[in-house]
Amino acid sequence: MSEIIETEATSTPAIKGAVSAVEDPGYWQRRSFGQLLRSDLGFLPVLLTLVVIVIFFTIASNGLFLSPENFSNLIVQSVPLGIGAVGIVIVLLIGEIDLSSASAGVLCTVIMGILTERAHWPAAPAITFALLSGLILGAINGFFVAILRIPSFIVTLAASIFYNGLLLFLLFGQTTQIISDPFVLSIAGTATSYLTDFWGILLPLAAVALYVGSLFFNYASRRRAGLRTVSLTRLVIQSIFVVVVVVGSIVLFQSYYGVPYSTAILFGIIIVFWLLLTRTRWGRHLYAVGGNAEAARRAGINVATIRIVIFALCSMLGGVGGIVLTSHLGSVSSAIPPEYQLNIIAAAVIGGVSLFGGRGSVWAVLLGMLIVQCLQNGLALLHQTTDIQNMIEGLVLLFAVTADALIRRAQTRSRSGR
Amino acid sequence: MADNEILTESSPASLEDDRQPLLSLRGIGKTFGAVRALQGVDLDVYAGEVVGLVGDNGAGKSTLVKAIAGVNTADEGEMFMEGRPVVINSPQAASHLGIETVYQDLALCDNLDVVSNLFLGHEQRTPVGFLSENEMEKQGLAVLRSLDVKLPSARALVSALSGGQRQSIAVAKTILRQAKIVLLDEPTAALGVAQTRQVLDLIKRLREQGLGVLVISHNMADVFEVADRIVVLRLGHRVATFDIRNTSSNQVIAAITGAEFGNTEKANQLLGQQALGENGK
After folding, report:
1. What is the pLDDT of residues B38-80, one digit of tens each?
2. What is the tens place of the pLDDT at every residue in A381-395?
3. What pLDDT, on the 0 to 100 scale, is given for residue A16?
4. What secondary structure does DSSP assign to B245-256, as a single string?
5. Interchain CB contact of A21 with B (< 8 Å)
6. C-alpha–C-alpha distance, residues B172 and B154, integer Å
7. How many CB atoms lie within 10 A of CB A94?
8. Is A285 at the interface with chain B, CB within 8 A?
9. Edge to edge, what strands does the sheet with B181-185 contain?
């Protein structure tokens, strides 16, 4: 395709000086469906997989799967996974990996549990202290990766093993620590841990209104600046899609108890990171580090600082996820479920974040965590035990990543993808 | 090239200013351990001029460019930017003086779109702190237009562009940073015929905009097409400077390889006289 553009360019010198001369006017229209799959519609295969899974389990469980009660439970159960996966997404985006965020998260909750239950601290400073320790632990990982140039795989593996030992040490061999602090429990562990109907409907609607508004505002300002715009039809379809998804979710939530606090926390975190990643200089630099660290360095970006901050945030988000999980379970356990960390990474990767850095969106977390959690929840509903659950989940992960890789490779090979 | 000639002759009033070199190096030397990579190299780059820097492998081209770009600091010698003595000891210092380098690997982020790459590290922000994407896109398009670059879209990912287009993006980036001198390291290596043409046109356009351009290349045909002067390095010394108007490719190659050395000396003297003559006018 590029060749065609160039011959056009050399054979029509008369165009020189025209306003849109730099850009090829037909480019966006001429893009094939395959190209769209690789860029704007990259989430479509994952979404289809999720839809297939949901339909299958709904039929197999006679509608029980999509009942508001089960749906609400499913979401609440998957939130800690999702929050941890946001951390993994930003680490993957800079082309690194963190195997310690789950253990760091559990360690944070142990610190919080000891402070509230044994030292009788109030909840707010205990949570702050726990999250700060997560931040510092992550920054230490980042220091080894960014400054000493040790591969992140090894650094975080070692950190994970260390945290496992440290939390046993802190708990004095106690296997579980019951949490009784009312504030901590109120996050996700009580029947009242839901937004009131007013806020549960208003907040998502306000977010959608802002988003759609910004889409059209941007469209108008690009028009005014004489820049190329996407077609209005596409804008409308995009807006309708978002509105339908959000209103549908609100209806599902409200037909049970409402929107859980934990879900609101997850969406808050996703939206904040989405804005940071796509709308700020910091986010742009983060993608640049993941795409070409040397180019980023030469552009004057402080690559080491970005790496340290990302690792710190990842461990802290693991801590946030851990605290939500603790609140939900009502206790802190010294045993870290072995598949927990891998599920977090799986959620990010299934959602479509590249393991090689620089590609992916933080919204991937939502699809990825839903697929992982739907499989576990659905198979449990069908009275399948952990053995079958794990085997199927492993196969789905492999399938998802393979399909993604094949689509990308096919596109790179075909001339249109270049 | 012919344009350039006419330009200097037809504007005698500004001749004095024009002949002040943008960048001038005097007696640059650099040693790596026991290896003398550069010794006593003088080099001038004028505004609106393309200087081709040629030489065999190991002649010191890259070392010289790195010294100018601030990647490796020269051990000895002086540098002047617009007549003022300057010290270039870091890439930032070079960039601050208006010296921008386009390396062979281009240093582009494949996963980002054209506009993001153009402004990488120098992003513009709205008062709220968000990126002002539309403003950057507008300015980016203006620069790309001035260089007559053709792209599928300013929002296309750089990974989807051809080699020539990528080179254009890397060059446009230097202009957005207010470059006065652009150093190009092997800009046409690994490019096809059509794309090489694009890049050569791009270099000519840089000259038209009054920038000083220093091009390193192995390709004689390319150098002869775009350069006004050719500087030949051999074993760390500047062995010859040719004016393109009365030089043949054979003379340059002889200077590069060191064959018929006497001949190149003569060419050098010839050039010196010519430069004097032009100055006198």
Report:
1. 888 899 999 999 999 998 888 888 889 888 988 888 888 899 9
2. 888 888 888 888 888
3. 39
4. GG--HHHHHHHH
5. yes
6. 12
7. 26
8. yes
9. B99-102, B181-185, B212-216, B49-55, B229-234, B237-243
ipTM of the complex: 0.83
| Cβ–Cβ < 8 Å for B270, B264 | no
Q: Residue A186 has which token pair? A: 């109120």
B110 vs A contacts (CB less than 8 Å): 291-292, 358
B134 touches chain A (CB under 8 A): yes
3-state secondary structure at position A2: helix
Q: Please give the sequence-ordered ranges of beta strands (E in DSSP) within chain B, or none if there are none.
A: 23-32, 35-45, 49-55, 76-81, 84-86, 99-102, 181-185, 212-216, 229-234, 237-243
Residue B150: what are its φ and ψ, rounded to 5°?
-110, 130
Question: Which residues from A are below 8 Å from B144, CB to CB?
Answer: 22
Element (H, E) at A331: strand A331-333
Which band of pLDDT confidence, cut at 50, 70 and 90, is reported for residue B146? confident
Both tokens of B186, joined, read 């092997």
Closest in A280, A291, A298 to B112, CB measured: A291
List pLDDT tens digits, range A257-307.
Answer: 888 889 999 999 999 999 999 999 999 999 999 999 988 988 889 999 999
User: How many whole angstroms separate alpha carbon A184 and alpha carbon A241?
Assistant: 36
Contacts of A395 (CB under 8 A, 6+ apart): none
